[in-house]
Amino acid sequence: MASIARSSLRMRPAMMRAPVARAFATTGARRAAYFPDEPAAPTVVSAIPGPKNKAAVAELDKVFDVRSVNMLTDYSKSHGNYIADLDGNQLLDVYAQIASIPVGYNNPHLKEVATSPEMVSALINRPALGNFPSADWANILETGLLKVAPKGLNQVFTAMAGSDANETAYKAAFMYYRQRQRGGPQTEFTEEELQSTMRNQGPGSPQLSIMSFKSAFHGRLFGSLSTTRSKPIHKLDIPAFDWPQATFPTLKYPLAEHAQENAQEEKRCLEEVERLIQEFHNPVAAVVVEPIQSEGGDNHASPAFFRGLREITQRHGVLFIVDEVQTGVGATGKFWAHDHWNLPTPPDMVTFSKKAQAAGYYYGNPALRPNKPYRQFNTWMGDPARALIFRGIIEEIERGDLIKNTASTGDYLYAGLQRLAERYPEHLQNLRGQGQGTFIAWDSPRRDDIIAKSKAEGINIGGSGQNAIRLRPMLVFQKHHADLLLERVEKIIQKL
Fold this sequence. Notes:
Layout: H1 2-11, H2 20-23, H3 51-60, E1 82-84, E2 90-93, H4 96-99, H5 108-114, H6 117-124, H7 137-143, E3 155-159, H8 162-182, H9 191-197, E4 209-213, H10 222-226, E5 245-246, H11 259-279, E6 284-289, H12 303-315, E7 319-323, E8 349-352, E9 359-363, H13 384-400, H14 402-423, E10 429-432, E11 441-443, H15 447-454, E12 459-460, E13 462-464, E14 468-470, H16 479-495
Parallel strand pairs: 2-12, 4-5, 4-6, 6-7, 7-8
Antiparallel strand pairs: 1-2, 3-9, 8-9, 10-11, 11-14, 13-14
Helix pairs in contact: 5-13, 7-13, 11-12, 14-16
């Protein structure tokens, strides 16, 4: 990395300080650890978007809404931590398909999984899992999804996506709530319940609620969207349930300098949660929370806050659902982000998707399984093909010790960003995510400008909330990748 740093200095002769990347330069020996064939550095050979990309987007626009398209990607030329476009540009990808690529583009082991006889059968004979699961479905679950189940949770309901995972978890919470009111799973439904639910009225369709937090994001289906509070555009024109919103802590940074203020803020938020549970007009069946509010701006809270949430939910008989759709599968330096909290008892349900390349929710209490078949059901109920991919991902994580790699690389990257924040405090504010692997973010009043300029410097990066820049590298992101990122972030800032 020293040659890169020297090149950077030649481009900035007036600067007397070495770039941050040089201070943290790593040896070339680490570069080939996971993807020996990936590019050594980003390559930008055209404007982005380039002519081929623009032409392809125009063609796609004839049949598909392209207004949210970031860039058309050449996946055949994307490798490891690098994403390629149609014009030959290779970008270091620290956004990773909105945090959903875990072990690199075109991972060789996943290619083997994708061409295995098991996969071929799962793809061409996709089963309706609730009715016709394959003979090996139990083994696929036990050697894959359940192998990494959160502590204390030994069962899984598989779903299609993160929104679906949360939606079905909410349904499980409502059915469990009503089952307890009836006196247990053996109590039969009344005729009034059966008739009224067909009219969308009580008591068959009860006025219950799920509590979520301000700035939360839990998906875009009807139930999950009612708990989403991140941006109005996500919710406009869609009917919503009358469910409560609690305040998520707004912490001040650096944390060490604001410990007392932050503790008071979290105490105030916990008191509000308890008050809402006690007073909200639609009884609260569950509280759902993200370990780190991602779409809402990468908002953090302390382990003590989440332990407080768990204590309150247990005290009031309310289920505690942890939404690990974006934080799960290693990104925070632990397989599940809630492992950082040291909870005295596990969550009631943990939802997952994204990096798992599969989706669903884990649970441990057998009573969360509905008392009758077909109450929690759809045609596919997940996808064995995606479960096989997740098993391959788990194998790759274990083979490469990728959780440890993410924790170590995250510490290294955070230290480099701290130095940048000291150098450019107006552009790197509220740096957060220390000790949380590579799940790191900061605020910048020029956020949109930084993101707009990043591709020209060979970086694919994303934002969240009002002015946050969020990093979502893959688990194969290493220290030499961090050096490349730090150098380019500094270069972008200097051009603002």
